[in-house]
């Protein structure tokens, strides 16, 4: 017995010594198995970069949401009276089905699933359906008091403005990756094109825990911080974009057209200030999404008489414009092909100036005889037609200058047959508005590293050439203004009180969809109506293009009516907003911002209040570490100034704060603030004067006010001689 037990003890000693020396059992490393069991690695999610307008107003951002988690392992419960796991999977599935987009049977299956070895997992999640849960839904589920149901903070892509340049901005969605993690991925528009720049790099946190995932006492954490994605600033102006969205929605509802497009641009720089189309969609829900094309740049149109602007410019530049000479209006025949004026019979012998004001096709045909076919096409190419503008957006179409037959040159000269894109028309119009210098359109202002503030990419205005002289541009502008002011003009309903507008109407045939090469005919609802205009005419600050396809018009309504309602509303409101040539805007006193960093917050607070602005201290007080706005920015009375200091943060009242001020406060304070809606703050989940701890979620709801600027459509009591195209 002594030898037997001695032998067993000796064998056990040798085994223990071997394990200690090699760290292996049956070929497996014990240290690795222990690390796998107790060492955890948590992903620190990076936020996707923001998309902002030219003034820093948020268009797209990540916002606080919640992830649904169900603890299903009974070992999580230590007190039967206070269960910490899902006790009744069937009842729990029935309740959760009312809140998340998943069938009750699928939820039950997840709640009762087993691991591959038959064990019950500690907790389960619900994929995409259990993510991006709003604060309201989370609160409602918590109120159901379901055992084992808990939440973790998450983020979701949020578009606070609803349908807002939606085909330009696009949208991004959470997608499950190969490693099982979820990442926000751009699926359309700028979100897709600049997905790499917007996507951040996740960090990680390694730590030791028990088998349930709880942090062990005295264990060390190793943290690699996440790097958020870059912020993209656009040339869009949120206020002007809102003017456009409202006007487009009103016209779309009223006239029910097949489609609409519109662009607002700065002719001096080529910056796109607003861009929209109808139908549109809500990027948060994708409701209304039936086409992924940005029609302003990806779809071609036959532009109609807006093309006559550039035929006129070519005639003037080449010395072939004779405004006081007469021609016979009505019809023009070339090699057996006949084109007619829009009233079919013309107006007898009239001057070329009157012919242009009346939008006479035969006037353009006679002018082309003097210009020459090749010269016309040469100048159209100088204006950028037939090739892409190079705008910083994908999928741009180039259009086609049709020159196969002699009659093609004539129809191209007045905007039929050949195709363009709306953005090409806007680019070409910048040459008319900008003393002959044509500017390339662009929508990306700059890309900024969200961590350091470093500008990674900074776009500048780019000239595309000078197709015409300054003198020609001025003359064209004057003639375009006369189409609105002249008794014979076709654009009288585009006049705006207080501003002189210059522009040209367009009414174009729509090709049939059967590929026959023929056009829709029948009634005035089967045309594409448009207007390309600029204001003020003497020194244009804005170009606005509006196109409406197949509006449903009453018998007494001209085709230009829906176009005019959008154009006049957007142009007038935008000019007033930009304080361009105002007639009734009072002078506003402004206070220049000083550099307050390093100064005592309480002293600065008194100084700012005496100057009529409202200081907001973020912290306990003492020396100021950062401020917003920065030194040199002018502020009007009543503006908010944010002063960051060290120490605990006491929450102020956010009542009536703007969305922009809320975003500034969120950024400077570092607090977890969920912002819902747009406009101005209506309510906040945590009352003012509350000292906020790190990570405490705060929900702030904003409401949308009525727009500051509104205008009624101009009422016309006289016929404006609107043109309709005629078959060639």
Automatic annotation (TrEMBL):
<feature type="compositionally biased region" description="Acidic residues">
    <location>
        <begin position="716"/>
        <end position="728"/>
    </location>
</feature>
<dbReference type="InterPro" id="IPR012338">
    <property type="entry name" value="Beta-lactam/transpept-like"/>
</dbReference>
<dbReference type="GO" id="GO:0005886">
    <property type="term" value="C:plasma membrane"/>
</dbReference>
<dbReference type="InterPro" id="IPR005543">
    <property type="entry name" value="PASTA_dom"/>
</dbReference>
<dbReference type="InterPro" id="IPR036138">
    <property type="entry name" value="PBP_dimer_sf"/>
</dbReference>
<dbReference type="InterPro" id="IPR050515">
    <property type="entry name" value="Beta-lactam/transpept"/>
</dbReference>
<comment type="similarity">
    <text>Belongs to the transpeptidase family.</text>
</comment>
<dbReference type="Pfam" id="PF00905">
    <property type="entry name" value="Transpeptidase"/>
</dbReference>
<dbReference type="InterPro" id="IPR005311">
    <property type="entry name" value="PBP_dimer"/>
</dbReference>
<feature type="region of interest" description="Disordered">
    <location>
        <begin position="706"/>
        <end position="728"/>
    </location>
</feature>
<dbReference type="GO" id="GO:0071555">
    <property type="term" value="P:cell wall organization"/>
</dbReference>
<dbReference type="GO" id="GO:0009252">
    <property type="term" value="P:peptidoglycan biosynthetic process"/>
</dbReference>
<feature type="domain" description="PASTA">
    <location>
        <begin position="587"/>
        <end position="647"/>
    </location>
</feature>
<protein>
    <submittedName>
        <fullName>Penicillin-binding protein</fullName>
    </submittedName>
</protein>
<dbReference type="Pfam" id="PF03793">
    <property type="entry name" value="PASTA"/>
</dbReference>
<keyword id="KW-0472">Membrane</keyword>
<dbReference type="InterPro" id="IPR001460">
    <property type="entry name" value="PCN-bd_Tpept"/>
</dbReference>
<dbReference type="GO" id="GO:0008658">
    <property type="term" value="F:penicillin binding"/>
</dbReference>
<dbReference type="Pfam" id="PF03717">
    <property type="entry name" value="PBP_dimer"/>
</dbReference>
């Amino acid at each position: 017995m002594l030898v037997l037990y001695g032998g067993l003890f000796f064998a056990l000693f040798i085994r223990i010594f071997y394990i200690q020396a090699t760290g292996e059992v049956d070929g497996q490393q014990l240290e690795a198995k222990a690390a796998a069991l107790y060492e955890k690695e948590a992903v620190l999610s990076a936020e996707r970069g923001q998309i902002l307008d030219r003034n820093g107003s948020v268009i797209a951002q990540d916002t606080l949401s919640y992830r649904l988690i169900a603890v299903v392992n009974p070992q999580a419960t230590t007190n039967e009276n206070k269960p910490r796991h899902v006790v009744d999977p069937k009842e729990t599935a029935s309740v959760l089905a009312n809140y998340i987009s998943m069938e009750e049977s699928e939820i039950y299956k997840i709640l009762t699933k087993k691991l591959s070895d038959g064990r019950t997992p500690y907790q389960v999640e619900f994929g995409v359906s259990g993510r991006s849960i709003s604060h309201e839904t989370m609160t409602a589920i918590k109120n159901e008091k379901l055992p084992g149901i808990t939440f973790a903070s998450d983020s979701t892509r949020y578009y606070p403005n609803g349908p807002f340049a939606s085909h330009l901005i696009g949208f991004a969605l959470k997608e499950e990756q190969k490693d099982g993690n979820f990442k926000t991925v751009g699926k359309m528009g700028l979100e897709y094109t600049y997905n790499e720049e917007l996507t951040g790099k996740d960090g990680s946190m390694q730590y030791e825990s028990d088998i349930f995932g709880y942090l062990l006492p005295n264990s060390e954490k190793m943290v690699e911080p996440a790097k958020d994605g870059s912020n993209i600033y656009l040339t869009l102006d949120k206020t002007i974009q809102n003017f456009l969205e409202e006007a487009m929605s009103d016209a779309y509802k009223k006239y029910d057209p097949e489609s609409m497009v519109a662009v607002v641009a700065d002719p001096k720089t080529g910056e796109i200030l607003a861009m929209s189309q109808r139908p549109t969609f809500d990027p948060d829900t994708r409701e209304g999404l039936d086409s992924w094309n940005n029609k302003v740049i990806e779809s071609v149109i036959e532009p109609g008489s807006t093309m006559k602007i550039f035929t006129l410019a070519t005639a003037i530049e080449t010395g072939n414009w004779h405004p006081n000479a007469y021609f016979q209006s009505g019809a023009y025949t070339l090699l057996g092909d006949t084109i007619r004026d829009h009233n079919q019979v013309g107006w007898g012998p009239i001057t070329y100036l009157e012919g242009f004001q009346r939008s006479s096709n035969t006037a353009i045909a006679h002018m082309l005889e003097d210009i020459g076919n090749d010269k016309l096409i040469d100048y159209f190419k100088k204006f950028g037609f037939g090739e892409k503008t190079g705008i910083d957006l994908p999928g741009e179409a180039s259009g086609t200058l049709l020159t196969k037959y002699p009659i093609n040159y004539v129809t191209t000269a007045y905007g039929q047959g050949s195709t363009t894109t709306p953005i090409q028309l806007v680019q070409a119009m910048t040459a008319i508005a900008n003393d002959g210098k044509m500017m390339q359109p662009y929508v990306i202002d700059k890309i900024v590293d969200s961590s350091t503030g470093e500008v990674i990419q900074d776009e500048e205005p780019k000239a595309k050439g000078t197709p015409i002289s300054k003198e020609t541009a001025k003359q064209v502008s004057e003639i375009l203004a006369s189409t609105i002011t002249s008794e014979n003009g076709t654009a009288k309903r585009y006049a705006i009180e207080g501003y002189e507008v210059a522009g040209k109407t367009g009414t174009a045939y729509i090709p049939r969809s059967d590929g026959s090469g023929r056009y829709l005919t029948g009634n005035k609802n089967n045309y594409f109506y448009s207007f390309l205009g600029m204001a003020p005419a003497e020194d244009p600050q804005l170009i606005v293009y509006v196109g409406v396809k197949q509006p449903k018009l009453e018998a007494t309504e001209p085709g230009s009516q829906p176009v005019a309602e959008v154009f006049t509303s957007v142009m007038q409101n935008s000019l007033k907003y930009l304080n361009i040539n105002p007639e009734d805007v009072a002078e506003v006193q402004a206070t220049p911002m000083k550099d307050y960093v390093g100064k005592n917050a309480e002293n600065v607070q008194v100084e700012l209040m005496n100057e009529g602005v409202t200081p907001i201290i973020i912290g306990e007080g003492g020396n100021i570490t950062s401020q917003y706005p920065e030194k040199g920015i002018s502020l009007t009375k009543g503006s908010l100034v944010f002063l960051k200091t060290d120490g605990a943060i006491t929450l102020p009242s956010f009542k009536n704060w703007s969305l922009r001020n809320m975003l500034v406060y969120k950024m400077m304070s570092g607090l977890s603030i969920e912002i819902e809606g747009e406009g101005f703050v209506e309510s906040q989940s945590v009352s003012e004067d509350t000292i906020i701890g790190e990570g405490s979620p705060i929900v702030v709801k904003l409401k949308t006010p009525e727009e500051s600027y509104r205008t009624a459509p101009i009422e016309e009591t006289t016929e404006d001689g609107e043109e309709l195209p005629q078959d060639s």
